[in-house]
Amino acid sequence: MSNERYLNALQGIAQKIPPVWMMRQAGRYHKHYQALRQKHSFEELCKIPELAAEVAFGPVDEFDFDVAILFSDILFPLEALGMGLKYTDAGPELGFAIRSKEDLAKLKSVKDSISFMQFQKDAMKLTRERIPKEKSLIGFVGGPWTLFTYAVAGKHEGNLSLPKTLTNVRKEFLEEIVQFLKANIALQLEGGADLIMIFDTAGGDLSPALFEEIVVPGVKSLADAFPGKVGYYSRGTASPHFQSVQRISSLAGYGLDHRWDLRDVFKTEKRMIQGNFDQALLFMEREEFKKTLIDYLKPFQDLAPSERVGWVCGLGHGVMPKTPEDNVKTFVETVRETFR
């Protein structure tokens, strides 16, 4: 079984109460995660399926989210392809960078590397068994362009000058990673996911023209391979970017950050739309936070359910470290009270 509200959002069925889930809902802010992290490394939590299932279960159990999400990381495909990967206090570190044709030649083939990702399929199965039957389960992969920025620069920050200018290796890398991600998505769907999100956090760093050239073909290829089973989220994108991905008819829907007015999006889009309360506002004192959240929800109350078809209520981006847990709980409860 899956969550009725979430399936309604995916299928374009109007409903009074939107489903709720948050990116990074199982992360560092949560005491359930922190307790597990004291005993295990981040990699163990991701790669040992029983632990990944337990991490994903925690916020669904405590906050009653409608959806659980695979606990993993977007960079494991780079490790699978032979780039090496370790997590330090300073962040993830790859064994080498992709800067030349010679570097590309070091990568393993998809055929020889995809079995590395079996732990995600197993984690998906165990998470499905761990969460209540009336909850949905989704998976995710990193966007091809975002994975390229990490492969080239080792991180996503700054103006991304190297990823934007290494045109001699970018096309070949993107072709390879798209094929890998297709196999990766298939594994997660086989594990029981209702939907796979593409998280392309570096997408908004591109101009609309480069976004159309670099990002859209890969996203379209992934969505076309699994029609209605893949959603797309990119932080910091603007209307021209969104219009580019909106034309991909095989996408199940989109996540939009807090820079968007979703009421405008609902006028032209009837697929799943996820978002988009500003995640930083969860640091407010409880009463001020609740008032701010109610004010955010009021415009949605003015819409008939048929006018906000597909809405999945959540944050503009992910839950930030040290976010007060009580406000996360208040968010879920307030959304349901408001629309009940």
Automatic annotation (TrEMBL):
GO terms for molecular function: uroporphyrinogen decarboxylase activity. Residues 19-28, 138-154 form the Uroporphyrinogen decarboxylase (URO-D) domain. GO terms for biological process: heme biosynthetic process. It comes from Leptospira tipperaryensis. Coiled coil: none annotated. One of its GO terms (cellular component) is cytosol. This is Uroporphyrinogen decarboxylase. InterPro entries: UROD/MetE-like_sf, Uroporphyrinogen_deCOase.
